[in-house]
Amino acid sequence: MKTLVLTLLYTAFASPASVPAEPPADIVFDVLRNGQAFGRHEVRFDKGQDGALLVDIDIELRAGLGPITVFRYEHAAEEVWRDGQLVSLEAETLKDGDRVAVDVERGSDAGLADLIPSSHWLGYDPALTRILNTETGAPMPVEIEDLGLETIETASGEIEARHIRMTGTLTVDLWYDAEGRWVGCAFEARGQTIRYVLQDV
């Protein structure tokens, strides 16, 4: 197992107007793999003593045969937002047996100006062509399509949401409600169908 630590400095990340001044409701998904339980993806919000918005992200996915784990993915991150701008991001990812730590702090340009992180909760402007990959700490070229309004299923029933498709290292379908809250996700990976079911509407 190898550990890679990336430290990147940036001047500012572009952030959409929807960055909330106050902590919004937490977002908790059950993650399904081919319709079966696969893990959890949680995004929790808090307010720092200095008024900053704190965003804690925790993802734990596991597939196994009985007690034997055949696939394991973990991602933990903390974003700090102030005055609508991302001022720091720390993340650690366990994927394919390797751990990658990313530490991004406001500072020199480092070629990352105008990027927002790939944590999905904030949504994406279809005009974006690059975002910050929070697994690697590197810019990621993307194509973002707005596919309009759809009805999706949550644990509390059906809701109407805007469908966004983002193509980058993989193609991810994302859904956001009328308030801009992230409420759904689906993608294909390694021949498996992954779907998120929102647990707290």
Description:
By secondary structure, the chain is mostly beta strands. The chain is built from no helices and 14 strands. It has a 12-stranded mixed β-sheet, with no helix packed on it. Strands 8-9 form a two-stranded antiparallel sheet. The radius of gyration is 17 Å and the shape is globular.
Compact summary:
This protein has strands at residues 3-10, 27-33, 36-47, 53-65, 68-82, 85-95, 98-106, 130-132, 139-141, 143-154, 157-167, 171-176, 182-189, 192-198. It is mostly beta strands. The N and C termini lie far apart (39 Å).
Strand order of the largest sheet: 1-7-6-5-4-3-2-14-13-12-11-10
**Major sheet details:** 12 strands, mixed
Q: Percent range for helical residues? A: under 10%
Radius of gyration: 17 Å
Shape: globular
Structural class: mainly beta
Number of helices: 0
Which characteristics define this entry?
twelve-stranded mixed β-sheet, mainly beta, two-stranded antiparallel ribbon, single chain
Question: What order do the helices and strands come in, and which of them pair?
Answer:
Layout: E1 3-10, E2 27-33, E3 36-47, E4 53-65, E5 68-82, E6 85-95, E7 98-106, E8 130-132, E9 139-141, E10 143-154, E11 157-167, E12 171-176, E13 182-189, E14 192-198
Parallel strand pairs: 1-7
Antiparallel strand pairs: 2-3, 2-14, 3-4, 4-5, 5-6, 6-7, 8-9, 10-11, 11-12, 12-13, 13-14
